[in-house]
Amino acid sequence: MRGIAGAAGYIPRGRLDLTGVAAVAGTGGGKGVRSVASYDEDTTTMAVEAARLALRSTAANGPDAVWLSTVTPAYVDKTNAAAVHAALRLDDDVIALDLGGAARSASGALGIALRGSGTTLVVAADIRTGLPGSGDEAAGGDGAAALLVGDTDVVAEYLGGASTTEEFLDRWRTPGDVRSKVWEERFGETKYLTLGDAAWRAALKAAEIEADAVDRVIVTGLHTRAARGLAGRLGRPVVEDAGVGNTGAAHPALLLTAALENATPGEVIGLVVLADGADVFLFRITDAITAFRPPRPVAAQVAAGAAVPYGKFLSWRGVLPIEPPRRPEPARVSASAAGRSEDWKFAFVGRRDPTSGDPQLPPRPSGGDDVPMADITGTIVTFTVDRLAYSPSPPIVFAVVDFDGGGRLPVELTDVAPEDVAIGGRVEMTFRRLSTADGIHNYFWKAKPLAV
Amino acid sequence: MPSNGIRDRVAIVGMGCTKFGEHWDLGADDLMVAAAAEAFESAGIDKSAVDAFWLGTAQTGMSGITLARPLELEGKPVTRVENYCASGSEALRQAAYAVASGAYDVAMAVGVEKVKDSGYQGLNANNPPNDGTGRTLTAAAMFSMVAPAYGRKYGVSDEDMRAAMAHIASKNHFNGARNPRAQFRGEVSTETICSAPPVAGTLGVFDCAGVADGAAAAVVVRAEDAARYVDNPLYIKALSFVAGNGSGLSDPAYDYTTFPEVVQAATDAYAQAGITDPRTELAMAEVHDCFTPTELVLMEDLGFSERGAAWKEVLAGAFDLAGDLPVNPDGGLKSFGHPVGASGLRMLYEPWLQLRGAAPEDRRIGNDRRLALTQNLGGYPGEMVAFVSIVGTA
Q1: Fold assignment, A3-316
Q2: Which domain holds residue B332?
Q3: Whole-prediction pTM
Q4: What is the ipTM of this complex?
Q5: How distant, in Å, are the alpha carbons of A281, B107, B220 from that of A284?
Q6: Which of A125, A161, A397, B192 has the smallest set of CB atoms within 10 Å of its CB?
Q7: What is the number of other CB atoms lying within 10 angstroms of the CB of residue B44?
Q8: CB B259 within 8 A of CB B377
Q9: Contacts of A382 in chain B (CB under 8 A)
Q10: Could you tell me if B86 and B198 lie in one domain?
């Protein structure tokens, strides 16, 4: 049986209240909120967080391949999935690939994995940008999702699927642009309704089931009106949207994950993705779903969150440059130094002190066995707020953290307001981008308040 | 820590110290030349009489040529040393040991830092290429963690901690107001200190040492030769230095209320000098008041106060200019600012004046004890280099 063995979404903490947009931009915004990747997050770091959660959600073995799809890659020319691979501490013989560029790459990657062999971690992440006041700004959201596709511990059996493709201009972005442009909405809607309907019927045929056998259907795509229209035509109960905006490349897997988190054995779920054509996937939920333990359900992440002022949102996305602290900017990371400390820098692996047995953070030359610390929680011993040091978004909140079971690290905190930090506070580690210099992203770990 | 020390084998026979400040019109060369010239003059020698030189600087220049070029030295051994903020003390230590070993008759230690050419406020470290996982906090933030840790451990209220820290800053500015070489010459009230804008943690602007350019220098000779140069030399009683291994940062037992490297260096220095009760034997102390909680903790690490008692003694004025053990009578880093490589030798300049009766009357210490301590550190709580010296007139 082939299908999905593990799944998780990652929704960053920030929320932009869309009702505040028009007051600044003069237009745009709307009701509700969108999720906002923090200044120290990018598609790679969010992919790492989703992938960590997905691997924790299942008893299945780790992947022999990891694929990352995004419209907003941290790098081009260089593989972003390699950083995900490093953060997950996967073996050298596990291939890491970017299948990126278009939003469709993410559902395409899922299709290839489902029709392939072995165990593949399919990760998608997106930061949805747009000019102030734009529809994309208001409709978008930032986030990531990861699906572990394999042959064991399957919670959602892949019954079959189909795709249709057509070349037409719905939305487009020239490489380097911070925003996409869209053609008249009605044109794309007409195209997608036809393409989606054809793929849906082909998928039912491939899966050898009738439409009535599908209990719930997810219809998603960046063309909201087309997705809504097709959902109406399919005549099946529709999975509601997550409520943090459309996370683009990540959205199909995010919604599928949310559906799995409240699925029951025997249920048939359809996933329809509209992007330059249509991709349809049909799954039957297995009895293993009762053992599926999402460590951080999508719904809980949606319900969490903290408001980000519109000005801060714009500055984080580079739309509104803010005066930086008058301190020297960080130097670029040394590639060779980073390479030597890959386990520490990317996977947060310390070493055991040969005498005391405690974790050494960072590892010292005397260190013994490796100690993976990324999933170890800790307690704040003391902390400070640095209003002078350079940060892409000052001030720096910094704490001395004692880890459960031993080991201490003075480390930067993130996803926290200075006034909410307290001695004794519980924290977990998160993979972040500390800064960027000479185009080199400096990835390392920070601590953040432990989600309850 | 086994060390034999060089008690009474080396004497300081000349010193110089520039005014510290924002010397927009003076470069590092000008500052080194000025400090060295004053030191030569006070020892009654010229540069040709000095056999070897050590230059302490953190970032102002590399190699001995940094000093040899402005002093126009000919064929002299000149060594640049760096040991964080203790670089100036390190230069003295090397020069003193060189003389004590018999390798040279006359040696000079110079410390300098030209900080104000960077275009940034504060001190900025140029780190070697690295993997990007190191801390990027300011020193203020690292030391700010001392204040709440100390308060919690000893049950000192936030208000009392604030008052003790403010007293330290106010005391040092009071002393600096009486020192023409200091950068800041005004007294600062505790009210002003307490209402200053925040920098890091509970530290405000006035809890932090300023930044300045400056240079200082000392000439050392064998003790038995000292009388050839001056009537009243300062004898080196102890020089101690400890480089921590950084384990405090990762040691859950470390509680940010003490600097173990300083304790080790002080213990060694007192043993070298034969001091058993520093509080009553020392005439004065110059300590590394980079931040107000640093000086507070140093009072205990140096054995001036019992653990947990320094805040009360600070508030009672024990370390004021008129107190029973004046600390930073010259104004300290608070009043001088901190030209990294110069500070260690600047600290030594105050005993040079005070113990020899050359300090101006309005900041003259009120006891006739004949030993003084200088304490200089670099790095952060948990990861520190620490220097302690004892000098005396007899």
Answers
A1: Peroxisomal Thiolase; Chain A, domain 1 (3.40.47)
A2: 139-209+236-392
A3: 0.95
A4: 0.92
A5: 10, 86, 87
A6: B192
A7: 13
A8: yes
A9: 145, 148-149, 256
A10: no
